[in-house]
Amino acid sequence: MIYGCQVWGQTNNNYVERIAILQNNALRIMSFSGFRDPTSSLYKKYKILKFNDYVTMQNCLLIHDFLNNKLPISFENYFNTTDDLYSFKIKTR
Question: What is the distance between the alpha carbons of residues 84 and 62, in angstroms, rounded to a whole number?
C-alpha cells in the first residue's frame, strides 16, 4: 500500500477513496471488528496512519529532504521555491 503512495495520493479521488476503503476493511479484519464498525478508534489503538495522512506525511518528508539537499541530483529542478518566483527585497531601516 505504501509503495508509490505519493503517486497514488495525487490521482483521482475515486482511487484514493478505494484504497482508504480497502485499508479500513483490512483493519477491521485484523482487529476482528464488525463490517460496519467505525475505524477511527482502531487507527488510534493500533497506531496506524490513514492512507491520506500517510501520503501527506510522505509529501512533507520529500519537501524536507528537498530543502535540505538530501535528494538525488535528478530532483534539483523538480520544485520551485518562492525565491525563484518572486524577486522582492525587504526594506530595512
Answer: 19
